[in-house]
Amino acid sequence: MKTTTDLQKLVLASLMAALIAVGGYLAIPIGPVPIVLQNLFVLVAALLLGSRWASAAVAVYLLAGACGLPVFAGGGGGLGHLFGPRGGYLFGFLAAAWLVGKLSEISRQQPLVEILAMAIGGLVIYAIGVPWLMTLLGLSPGKALAVGMYPFILGDVVKIAAAYAIVKSVRPLLRSTQPPARHDLPVRPAR
What we know:
This protein is an all-alpha fold. About 70% of the residues lie in helices and about 0% in strands. It contains 7 helices and no strands. Helix 1 (about 5-25) crosses helix 2 (about 40-65), helix 2 crosses helix 4 (about 85-105) and helix 5 (about 110-135) crosses helix 7 (about 155-175).
């Protein structure tokens, strides 16, 4: 680690990976794809940590699940879950975390851009998850959309609003814990 900030980002990325896992336990089964809070925490990670560290948080989460830890929706784990019907959504989390984080960085955390970025991130998750679901279950495109996207749109709008509210509340706390820049440190008089 080069700086205290890197250590803080590492700790926050670890915390976000854990929260993404917890979001999987809060699952409402409604078909082949349950309603979960994982994507809420992916979006929060992206806005709080940026593209690099949010991607790292999601990668740690996916690696933990691939190794068999019960971190996926409903407490699932292992390669069967990672490459099963829901796997596209899981890999979509990684792409969305990077993209939303990058758009937040580029916009310098402009509220409207971040809200649009989260909506785009949700579409990225669907763009990977729905075709994956369609292929693995042999569904028609219409059926895949009906079971893998349409039931979740309203909930995603609520999750985007919740994610933005969380980020807006947490960002000031994170900024207040950052160490001062090197040039801002007080200078001690020579003795």
